């Protein structure tokens, strides 16, 4: 079990401080204050310093915390900033367009950086083995793929990538990130993740990489209901049938319901069996003062 955090050398992202149910972060040139239910402790810096640094603060709206509207609210401007800007993640060659959304998100989850590193490294290794055997590029499927950082990491590693999300606008955003990053060839699908996985099983298709970062609740484009605790095991069992038996990888990331890394590992082990190397851990952001903020858990399988 490991604790992972983005590299300190990442110039375009920093968790400056955290506490009192909020975090103070810098994305490229802009600093923002966002709600953070897990920051139960006291912040290190006084409120006056937070406000002196921040360009904007996200204020939760009436529905905040309620199912389906968990993260809704509005941004209060504090200093002049652009509504859209880009950041880079040089270790994987990513350029990502960010923007202030009405759901407290800005278009990237920085704590995922070590998953991107794993994806690019393992895709590359798998691609090399396949090339030596005269086989084509590895196929990587990214489910719940959002604005596509993990899809771009797989693309960078030399995969034929399929990026799936149920929301058309975020798929368009991911395509923009692909173009900004100077990549191409990703296949875009707007669909319900479980429906797609079931169909892939029926078709007998195999994938060399599968990436999943499912939310607690969600909807497919035709109103299909996604509920993590009810649907995750079935989805993983489908993925177990889709993942190639060797020279392949799985990344499962979980950030809701308070699920632990051990829970994620047990789920993957029961669905995928004992072949291959499994690693699990917590992804954290560490602020300037050393306070670690745990944001998700991961399990990665390499066969
Ligand atoms: C928080 S994001 C995952 C973050 C992403 N993996 C990353 O690190 O950039 C969860 C995504 O799941 C999508 N989603 C929700 N329900 C879905 C469903 N039933 N099928 C496919 N995607 C769904 C949402 O649109 C959202 O983009």
Explain this structure to me?
The protein is α/β, with parallel strands linked by helices and 303 residues long. It has 2 domains: 2-99, Golgi alpha-mannosidase II (Immunoglobulin-like), CATH 2.60.40.1180; 110-302, Vaccinia Virus protein VP39 (Rossmann fold, 3-Layer(aba) Sandwich). It is 28% helix and 32% strand. It has 7 helices and 17 strands. It has helices at 47-53, 113-132, 149-156, 168-180, 193-203, 228-242, 261-272, and strands spanning 2-4, 13-19, 22-27, 30-35, 56-60, 73-77, 84-89, 94-99, 139-143, 160-165, 187-190, 209-212, 217-219, 225-227, 249-254, 277-286, 292-302. Helix 1 links the parallel strand 4 (30-35) and strand 5 (56-60). Helix 2 packs parallel to helix 3 and helix 6 packs across helix 7 (261-272). It binds S-adenosylmethionine (SAM). S-adenosylmethionine (SAM) is lined by residues 109, 112, 144-147, 149-150, 165-167, 170, 192-193, 213, 215, 218-220, 224, 226. S-adenosylmethionine binds at residues 109, 112, 144-147, 149-150, 165-167, 170, 192-193, 213, 215, 218-220, 224, 226.
């Amino acid at each position: 079990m490991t604790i992972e955090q983005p590299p300190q050398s990442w110039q375009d992202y920093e968790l400056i401080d955290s506490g009192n149910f909020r975090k103070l972060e810098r994305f490229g040139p802009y600093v923002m204050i966002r709600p953070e239910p897990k920051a139960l402790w006291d912040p290190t810096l006084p409120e006056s310093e937070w406000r002196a640094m921040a360009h904007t603060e996200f204020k939760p709206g009436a529905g905040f915390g309620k199912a389906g509207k968990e993260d809704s609210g509005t941004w209060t401007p504090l200093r002049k900033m652009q509504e859209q800007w880009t950041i880079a993640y040089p270790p994987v060659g990513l350029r990502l367009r960010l923007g202030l959304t009405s759901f407290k998100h800005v278009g990237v989850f920085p704590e995922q950086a070590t998953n991107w590193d794993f994806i690019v490294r393992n895709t590359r290794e798998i691609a090399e083995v396949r090339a030596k055997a005269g086989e084509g590029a590895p196929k990587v499927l990214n489910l719940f793929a959002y604005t596509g950082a993990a899809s771009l990491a797989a693309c960078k590693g030399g995969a034929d990538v399929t990026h799936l999300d149920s929301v058309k606008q975020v798929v368009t955003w991911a395509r923009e990130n692909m173009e900004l990053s100077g990549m191409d060839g990703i296949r875009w699908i707007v669909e319900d993740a479980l429906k797609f996985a079931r169909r892939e099983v029926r078709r007998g298709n195999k994938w060399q990489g599968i990436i999943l970062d499912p939310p607690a609740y969600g909807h497919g484009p035709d109103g299909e209901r996604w509920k993590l605790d009810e649907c995750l095991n079935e989805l993983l069992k489908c993925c177990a049938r889709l993942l190639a038996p060797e020279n392949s990888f799985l990344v499962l990331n979980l950030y809701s319901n308070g699920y632990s890394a051990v829970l994620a590992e047990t789920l993957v082990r029961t669905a995928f069996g004992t072949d291959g190397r499994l690693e699990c851990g917590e992804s954290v952001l560490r602020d300037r003062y050393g306070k670690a903020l745990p944001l998700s858990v991961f399990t990665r399988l390499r066969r």
